Amino acid sequence: MQIEVLMAVAGALLLVSVFANRISTFLGIPGLLVFIAVGMLAGSDGIGQIQFYDAQITNNIGTIALAFILFAGGLDMRWKDVRPVLFRGSLLATLGVVLTALFLFAAAYGILRFDLAVALLLSVIVSSTDAPAVFMIMRTQKTRLRGSLRPLLEFESGSNDPMAVLLSLGALAFLQNSAFDAVALLKMFGLQLILGLALGFVLGKSALVLLQKVCICYFGLYTVFGVGLVLLLFGLVQLLGGNGFLAVYVSGIVVGNSPFIYRRNLIRFHDSLSWIMQVGMFLLLGLLVNPHELLSVMPAGLAAAFFLIFAARPAAVFICLYRSGFGFREKLFISWAGLKGAVPIILATYPLMIGFPDSQFLFNLIFFLVISSVLLQGKTLAWLAMRLHLNHPQP
User: What are phi and psi of 391, to 5 degrees?
Assistant: First the structure.
């Protein structure tokens, strides 16, 4: 495809997504579903007839987009709100992900009778709460939660992707290699977690010193600094064996909670950039899927979504928040807020890239489950908060 055609098509899809977002507001459905729908309409089964099947490109672009989305989420996170829920949020982001995967695997393998490989990969890939979905729905629906619910949910969703990535790659390694070493996997996870936290904090502090001590003078260069920081930090931490997603999120919290010139402007810039990344990522995911293939996975997808939403996630949340000070209503809402989004779909491209057996079925199954989660949980999140009396009244 010529560069002129590519630019025109990309621009047209972005503009259509902007105005199509009004449809989501009018119908009361999450905007990310509209972005995915636009991508599907432009794809091979839609009116656009764009033939796009490259899982590697989708994975690469999704990784870059997620890094910027998490950094923007960290910038917008107030540390004074996070501190009281740091322990419980960390528990949900680690043990909660493992328990969710374990409970869903038991249902998928023992009750739904999926193959071992499909049941295992499905359970670990959809085990985490998706940061882009939570950030977008919380902000577009203007859900104003009481107490520490919002910081807990945003901190959990922003920090639990490393565990899902590790479990997914570990599951693939286990299925491909008979000499699988669980101890080595645990060591790798520990290294990723420690380096991600430490380097994210140290490099975030270093960037903050530069922002406070060096006058760049032009606001435009501050935005370049922010983009460069995300790219350098993510790439460097990954090369050193840490988790880049966790590092950019931590550095965003460090930078966003300290004073420096043009701070508010920089936060607004990254908020806008986060929207661009989210729209582009969901459009691309919509292009990658073939809608006619989703019909064949509908029964299995609905059953898996049922067990995930109504059993696996609530069980994990109630265990992790035992004696936490949160009441039944708060735990119920946190369980319902375990939205799935782009991250599981991006993780589902790993089996596609290596040509794993049943990878297309698995991708379609996960895609359908994500759509079901966003449509059901995303559409009812604000309503449930109101019914449980957990939201502040709108001014």
Answer: -110, 155
At 51 the three-state DSSP class reads: coil
Strand positions, DSSP E, the chain: none
pTM of the model: 0.83
pLDDT (tens digit per residue) in 336-369: 988 887 788 888 888 888 888 888 899 999 989 9
Phi then psi for residue 357, to 5 deg, are -55, 140
Closest CA to 247 of 162, 170, 167: 162
159 Cβ contact list (under 8 Å, min separation 6): 89, 90, 93, 246, 249
- CA-to-CA distance for 96 and 126, rounded, in angstroms? 12
Nearest to 31 by CA among 274, 278, 270: 278
Residue partners of 291: CB distance under 8 A and separation at least 6: 40, 43, 45, 46
How far apart (Å, rounded) are the C-alpha atoms in residues 318 and 326?
10
What is each CA distance from 254 to 71, 80, 243, 259, 350, in whole angstroms?
10, 12, 17, 10, 31
Q: Quick one: how many helices (H) and strands (E) in the chain?
A: 21, 0
Asked if pLDDT for residue 208 goes beyond 80, the answer is: yes
Q: Under a CB-based contact definition with an 8 Å cutoff, are residues 251 and 5 in contact? A: no
What letter would DSSP give residue 144? -
Instruction: Write the burial class of residue 190 (CB in 10 Å: 0-12 exposed, 13-18 middle, 19+ buried).
Output: exposed
Rounded CA-CA distance 341/128 in Å is 10
- Classify 1 as helix, strand or coil: coil
Q: Which residues pair with 316 in a beta bridge?
A: none
Higher-confidence residue: 177 or 190? 190
Choose among 274, 280, 284: nearest CA to 55: 284
d(CA 304, CA 310): 10
Q: Which two tokens stand for residue 160?
A: 């639990």
CB atoms within 10 A of CB 264: 7
Distance in angstroms (rounded) separating the CA atoms of residues 243 and 254: 17
